[in-house]
């Protein structure tokens, strides 16, 4: 039996961030071209596809410079689409999409600034993962 190696971190656009991943939540969201009810009350729909979207929660990053680089990267309004590599069971999962709902909270107020914790963001897929 092969042993498993624990890894942490996330790669965004080829830049690896060695950070503590607390959780990665996956949603399988259906996107419909249309969905309406006919006169009999039955739903008639055309599905575009299923999108795997993720919510990522990150623990405390002790390196303030690394945290700031990551935060600036995911909040860059000039570059909205990103290629992300996440751990996914047996192998890594490659994802292309955009970030939204980015939030964090102050952990400590220091004489030279603050440190943050609980960085959370959503990743929404550019294209469907599954199509008809």
Q: Can you count the beta strands?
A: 7
The SS-based structural class is mainly beta
Give the helix level as a range of percent: under 10%
The number of helical runs is 1
Q: Mind telling me the CATH class?
A: Mainly Beta
Shape: elongated
Largest sheet: 7 strands, antiparallel
Relative strand content: over 45%
Describe this protein with a few key phrases.
elongated, Elongation Factor Tu (Ef-tu), domain 3, seven-stranded antiparallel β-sheet, 60% strand, mainly beta, 1 helix, 132 residues
Give an account of the 3D structure:
This protein starts with 9 loop residues before the first strand and ends in a 7-residue tail after the last strand. The mean pLDDT is 88. The chain has one helix spanning 64-74; strands at residues 10-12, 15-17, 21-37, 43-58, 82-88, 91-110, 113-125. The protein has a single domain (10-125), classed as Elongation Factor Tu (Ef-tu), domain 3 (Beta Barrel). The protein has a seven-stranded antiparallel β-sheet with strand order 2-1-5-6-7-4-3, with helices on one face. The radius of gyration is 19 Å and the shape is elongated. The chain is 8% helix and 60% strand. With 132 residues, the chain is mainly beta.
